[in-house]
Specification:
217 residues, alpha+beta, Pathogenesis-related Protein p14a, two-stranded antiparallel sheet, 8 helices, 38% helix, CAP_sf, CAP_domain_YkwD-like
Length: 217
């Protein structure tokens, strides 16, 4: 298994929360105070009671109404966390789409982001599968294209990290199971540095179908 690796990081964005509260206000009815003072004077009430009334003690006031705007938080959705995989891609065969879905299901189950399909990689993967059938070999190094990395570069594909998985089997499900049961191939499928995938499945060869997975990041 040949792989080049380089690390990269991602960032999550959360919108800031906001909250507002109304400021209460209070009004004093002056005519009511004057009437009560006059009544106390007529009844010879003490000066302390009159002073308390003028100071506002003992006077009742309605409680002000208060309102609060609820705090809101907005977070960008995470496809990996929700288990969402890539949508069906135009140009893939049914088998290729099925294998993409299986790969991304494994990634999301392990907390990784799903891989996006790159049709350039689909093309190189199909070329490799067809070449193995035509020339009767099963190897990462092609007599036609060289290494998978040479092949990608010859098609104008640039990358920081890349890998290739090969399988021969009769069905997508059996091929996927065999790849996941192999430590090196599983490591490619669950490599957090990869962002894009291309799968090429061609009918033929001694196994029934030839599978090539190309990864880049």
């Amino acid at each position: 298994m040949i792989m080049f690796t380089m690390l990269f990081s991602t960032m999550a964005f959360a919108a800031p929360s906001s909250a507002k509260a109304a400021t209460p206000s209070k009004n004093v009815n002056q005519s009511t105070v004057v009437s009560k003072v006059q009544s106390l004077l007529n009844n010879n009430s003490g000066s302390a009671e009159i002073s308390n009334l003028l100071a506002g003690k003992g006077a009742s006031a309605a409680q002000p109404e208060q309102k609060t705007v609820p705090t809101t938080t907005q977070t960008a959705p995470d496809p990996a966390a929700s288990g969402q995989t890539t949508s069906p891609v135009a140009g893939l065969t049914a088998d290729e789409q099925k294998m993409v879905d299986l790969v991304n299901k494994e990634r999301t189950a392990n907390g990784l982001k799903p891989l996006q399909v790159d049709m350039r990689l689909v093309n190189t993967a199909r070329m490799k599968s067809q070449d193995m059938i035509n020339k009767g070999y099963f190897d990462h190094n092609s007599p036609t294209y060289g290494s998978p990395f040479d092949q990608m570069k010859s098609q104008g594909i640039t990358y920081k990290t890349a890998g290739e998985n090969l399988a021969g089997n009769s069905t997508v499900e059996k091929a996927h199971t065999a790849l996941m049961n192999s430590a090196g191939h599983r490591a490619n499928i669950l490599n957090a540095n990869y962002t894009h995938i291309g799968i090429g499945i061609i009918d033929g060869g001694p196994y029934g179908k030839m599978f090539t997975q190309h990864f880049i990041g």
